[in-house]
Write a structure and sequence with these properties.
By secondary structure, the chain is mainly α. It is built from seven helices and three strands; from the N terminus they run ααβααββααα. 66% of the residues lie in helices and 10% in strands.
Length: 172
C-alpha cells in the first residue's frame, strides 16, 4: 500500500515536472525571441556570442558549447562574420582547426545584450519573494548541472530519447 502511494506521488511529480519544464522552455524561448526581435542577432547567434565572450573557441568546442550541429553552427558563424561580429582563423599549430573569436564590434554587441539580459533577469527576480530567491537560484543551478551534456548520466538519458523501437505512433 505504501509503495503504491509512493509510486503515485512520483508519477504526479513527474507529470508536474514535465509540464513545468515544457512551459519554462517555451517561455524562456519566447522571452529571448522578444528581447532580440529589434536587435542585430538571433537567439542562436546570441548564444554563440555569449559562448565566445570569455575566449576564442575552436568550431568543435563552440558547437558543443552551444549544443548545435557543426553544419548549423557554420552557417551561424558565417552570418556573424558577415556582420563583423566574429572572425575565424586557422590555428598555426594545426591548420585543420578553425578558431572563432569576437571582434571588437562583437564584444560591444555582447556587452549590450549582456546588460539587457541582466536587466530583464533583475526584473524577473523582483517578481520572486525575497526569501525564495536563493532557493530558486540553487534549483536553477542544480538543473543546469544535471542537464549538462558533458555529464555521463545526462548523455545516457539523451541516448534513450529516440532509440530504435520508440517511434511516435501516427497513422499514414
Amino acid at each position: 500500500m505504501e509503495d503504491d502511494k509512493r509510486e503515485n506521488d512520483k508519477d504526479e511529480l513527474v507529470r508536474r515536472s514535465r509540464k513545468a519544464f515544457t512551459r519554462l522552455a517555451r517561455f524562456v524561448a519566447q522571452l529571448m525571441r522578444e528581447q532580440l526581435a529589434c536587435g542585430p542577432v538571433t537567439v542562436q547567434q546570441c548564444y554563440t556570442l555569449e559562448a565566445l565572450a570569455e575566449r576564442p573557441l575552436s568550431m568543435n568546442v563552440l558547437a558543443a558549447e552551444v549544443a548545435l550541429h557543426q553544419s548549423t553552427l557554420s552557417r551561424i558563424v558565417e552570418k556573424l562574420e558577415k556582420q563583423g561580429l566574429v572572425e575565424r582563423a586557422r590555428l598555426a599549430e594545426n591548420q585543420r582547426m578553425v578558431e572563432v573569436r569576437l571582434t571588437e564590434n562583437g564584444r560591444e554587441v555582447h556587452r549590450f545584450l549582456d546588460s539587457e539580459c541582466n536587466r530583464m533577469i533583475s526584473g524577473l527576480l523582483d517578481l520572486v519573494p525575497l526569501e525564495r530567491r536563493a532557493a530558486l537560484l540553487e534549483s536553477l543551478e542544480e538543473m543546469t548541472r544535471i542537464l549538462d551534456p558533458k555529464i555521463r548520466e545526462f548523455r545516457k538519458l539523451l541516448a534513450q530519447c529516440c532509440s530504435p523501437g520508440k517511434e511516435i505512433p501516427c497513422d499514414p
